[in-house]
Each structure stands twice: as C-alpha cells, then as structure tokens.
Amino acid sequence: PNGTAGPGGIGAPVLGPTLSSGALLDITGHYLMSFHACDTAAAECRDPRNHQVYLAQSDDGAQWSIIPGWTPYAGSVPDVIRRGNTIYIYTPGTLVRYHLDTGMFEGPLEVTVNSGEMFVDPSAFVDDQGQLALFFLYGQVGGDPAGCLPQETTCEKRFGSATEVEGSDGASFTVDEGDRATIPLSTSGGIRSASDPDIFFDGAQYVLYISHGPSTSVWTSPGLRGAYTQVSTLPDGMLSNGTGGVAAGYFDPITQQYWTFAHAGKQNQASIIRRATHADFSRQLSESDWNVTISGASLGLTQTSNVESAGFTVNEP
C-alpha cells in the first residue's frame, strides 16, 4: 500500500492495494507505539515517500518489540489510538484500521475533513463522548508546512482540531471552530519551524506537544477543543531544547510521571526513539533524562535504519 505523506495533507488520494486481512496479530502489550522507519543505506530518508509504518508493543513503556507478523506499509509520521476493539493508525491523508476481534485490516483509507485547507501531522484522541478528535498542523502549498514559505521572513503556524463524523469510523471529520494554538515563526529568530502536534490528557488538563525540529514545546488547555497556552514554567515553553523532537506524551497515573517519547539523531548515526520520565513541567529535560527505547538494531531492523515519529496509546478499550 502507498499512502500520501508530507504536505499532501488529509484528503489527498490514496494509492495501492489494501493490507492483507484475516490474520489475528498477537497484540497483547499494555502499550502500543506507531513509528516510521527508513533504511538510510538503501533510500533517501528525508523523502517521506520512503518511510514505512510500523507498530510496536510494550508492557512497561521501556522495552519494545515490533508486533509479530506486522507488515510495514508506506506512510510517514504515524499516530495510533485504540477505541473499543479497533486500532486506528493515522498518517497524513490516510487511515488504517485493525480489528482486534476479527483480525481484519481496512485501508489505507482516505481521510476527509470538511475544509478546503490542507492538513498534516495528525494526532488522534478519544474524547469524553467516545468520538475521535484529530489534531493537526494546517498545511500550505509551495513549501514545507512546518516553516515559512521561501519568500517569507515571518509567518504563523496554525494548529487545529476536527471531530469525527458519526458513522464514519474515523475516516471523516468536521473542523472545530478556532485554532488550538498559533505559533509565530521568524527565519532569523530562535523558532523557525513548528509541526507534529501530539495531544494527551494528564488527569487535570489537556497537554499539547509541538515540535520545533529537534526541540519540543508544551501547551495546555482545560478543555480539549479550547485555546492552548504555552507552559510558563519552561523557558520559551520548551521541554526539550535540542534533545528530542516529534514527541509523544503520556501521563502514567500509577507512577504519577509524564512519559515523553521523542526521536533524536546524531551526525552519521541512524535516528532513535528515546523516553524521558519526569514529574512535571518545571524544568527542561537534559541529555541525561533520556533513555533509548527503540532503535533499528533493537527491533531487528538494520543498524542503518532511522526510527522516528513515535505515536503512543494505551492498549485497552
């Protein structure tokens, strides 16, 4: 299968055959993580069309393995959510559903949003009504959606959300009014890009992670579809400053700790996904806070495989 990735956005056409169906996968881990991988020795990994979507599982959030029998498919910056007996994996423009009770795959399916604007970097959440909410970055024509257009020295990045259309099973959405967050960028300033929102609830408030290349800022709101404000206890709202980007967050009610997953890359080394555990947002994460959770080698992929863009969900109905 071949879904669209990058600035194609939600609503872009879907190409390729459907995934094989009917084989019950051994999905027993307490936590699930979606990510994309690309072998840097075999492909140009800066091109999202060369990314493949994987699903991994874990019982403790620290040790992860690929779902046995998983067939990777073309897609980039995936996010995963479970609702009832269905696992939903979103990539820009597409959705794959896996039914835990029947072993049936559906997709990649086209995801539509009732707006003329383009959307990228979807992050899914199940709201109090049991409906899926999709958070995203508004796309743009003629340039990387995360940054300003080539002719602009300043611009604003808008993050929005949309609510599932009843009966569409996660394939159709209606845009929610207003923006969830807006971030000014400057080609000469400290913040030159903003992308990859990730939404989660920490028991008291909704938390939105936004990526700035290898860094991550934190935004909060008392309501899921409200206006999110930058956390004031962190310098410029930055939880990670150069130590990890394209983050996924979770608040563990048992240990009362935040789990932040983000990927990091070093010169001439494949990207890896790491986890930091922290009690609050009172301080910026340092390099020593991070522990490797998955690498290409740890998953049985090649040593030269990038693993990036973690999506996280608890594997329970």
Beta-strand fraction estimate: over 45%
Secondary-structure element order, N to C: EEEEEEEEEEEEEEEEEEEEEEEE
Q: Specify Rg, calculated over alpha carbons.
A: 18 Å
Note poorly predicted spans: 1-17
Give the helix tally.
Answer: 0
Number of strands: 24
Distance between the termini: 27 Å
Helix content: under 10%
Overall shape: it is globular
Main features:
mainly beta, five-stranded antiparallel beta sheet, globular, 317 residues, disordered N terminus
Word description of this protein:
This protein is an all-beta fold and 317 residues long. Helices cover 0% and strands 46% of the residues. The chain is built from no helices and 24 strands. It has strands at 31-39, 52-58, 65-66, 73-74, 79-83, 86-91, 94-99, 105-110, 112-113, 119-126, 132-138, 154-164, 172-175, 181-186, 195-201, 206-212, 215-221, 229-230, 238-240, 245-252, 257-264, 272-278, 290-294, 305-314. The radius of gyration is 18 Å and the shape is globular. The model is unreliable at 1-17 (pLDDT under 50).
